[in-house]
Amino acid sequence: MVKKIIITGGTYSGKTTVLKLLEKRGFETIPEAAMQIIEENVTKVGQKEHQEEIRSDFKKFALLFMKRQEKLESNIKSDNIVFLERGFVDFVALCKLMKIDVPKQIQEKAKKVVYDKVFLLENLPDFDKREGTGRISDKDFAINMREELKKAYNEFGYEYVCVPLIDVEKRVDLILKELNLI
Predict the structure, then answer these.
(1) pLDDT by residue (tens digit) across 48-105?
(2) What is the side-by-side order of every strand in the sheet holding 3-9?
(3) Structural domain of residue 19, as residue ranges?
(4) Whether the Cβ atoms of residue 127 and residue 12 lie closer than 8 Å to each other
(5) Strand, coil or helix: 102
């Protein structure tokens, strides 16, 4: 049976870098659904228009993120361990951070889907807004996002492992040790 392991954190916490290293070490990984949607929309309408759209109708994007996450998780190939960059609970935290009511579909999905372990990454110190990516976050948003993630994962009954700000190789080793994989 597949074990789903969540790698989460605020924006610019090193999630993608950790996932890439896990993949390099031979593990199946699932990239962040939200970033896929954002990149597709920026390509379609441009960065400025995308940012206006996401700010004016975040609920629409949250539901798109959820649907993409469903698709990504349904395509899991491994019957062992898979590392996911964010999970459905993250969308609950994002909605709360954006001060919108959490759509019923997202709330239900976050209750239904079970993750085996959650790793919460500390934010990187030199925040990079990554102009041109379509993100709407800044350093304060990233910090607040991490706090909302803590609350949301607690709300859904998860204990999470905090991954400190250390070298990426050491972060991955910490995760794998916690899972008894090394």
Answers:
(1) 787 777 778 888 888 888 899 899 888 888 788 999 999 999 999 999 999 999 999 9
(2) 28-30, 81-85, 3-9, 117-121, 160-163
(3) 3-178
(4) yes
(5) coil
Q: How far apart are CA 53 and CA 46, in angstroms?
A: 11
The DSSP string of 123-164 is: PPSS----TTS-----HHHHHHHHHHHHHHHHHTT--EEEE-
Q: What is the CATH number of the domain that holds 72?
A: 3.40.50.300
Is residue 94 a contact partner of residue 37, using CB atoms and an 8 Å limit?
Answer: no
Domain count, the chain: 1
Within 10-139, strands assigned E span 28-30, 81-85, 117-121
Bridge-based pairing state of the strands 117-121 and 81-85: unpaired
Q: Write the DSSP symbol of residue 103.
A: P
Joined together, the tokens standing for residue 24 give: 């390099």
Closest CA to 8 of 146, 179, 138: 146
Predicted model pTM: 0.89
